[in-house]
Every structure is written in structure tokens, then in C-alpha cells.
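Explain this fold:

***
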Amino acid sequence: MLGRDSQTIKGKIDMKVTFKSAAIASVAALGLGLAACDSPAENAAEDEIEAMEEERDETIDAMEDSGQITDETADAMDDQTDAMEESMEAQVEEATDGDGM
């Protein structure tokens, strides 16, 4: 069971990862207008999304391995990452469909 200090540290780490992911998602969303212009840009946007997911997964795995978070927290964070990835990919898809591509 985590002590009070460990829970505080865990909360700060969760917030840091969440804020970083939100910032990456915002940048990716802003780039969707450009990504809709042509297929290479769309591919680049999707590559960026994949890179964000991989980086976040590695961070979560490292936190779990070091005992900073529980298995359950890691699973929840992984689910959140997957949902973010799917949402961003859907936004890319909508943007390209809107231009008749």
C-alpha cells in the first residue's frame, strides 16, 4: 500500500504525464489543418501520433517498473493513451475526408 508521500508523488507524476500528453495532443490537433492538405502530411501527422503513444507507453512502463504506480494505474493510463490516439487519428481522418480526399 502506498504511503501518503508516495501517493502525492504519484499524483504529481500522473499530472505531469497528463499535461504533457495534452500538450502533444493540442499540437497534433493544430497540425490537422495542414495534414488534411495532402497524403504525405497526413502520414506525418499519424507518425507523430504514433511517436507520442510510444513515448507515453514507455514512460508508463518505466513508472510501473520503478514502483511509482500500480498495475491498475498503469492499465488505466494505457487505456487513456489508446483513447487519445484513437481520437487524434479520427480527427486526422475527418480532416482528410472534409477535403474530399
Summary: DSSP finds four helices and no strands in the chain. The two ends are 53 Å apart (CA to CA).
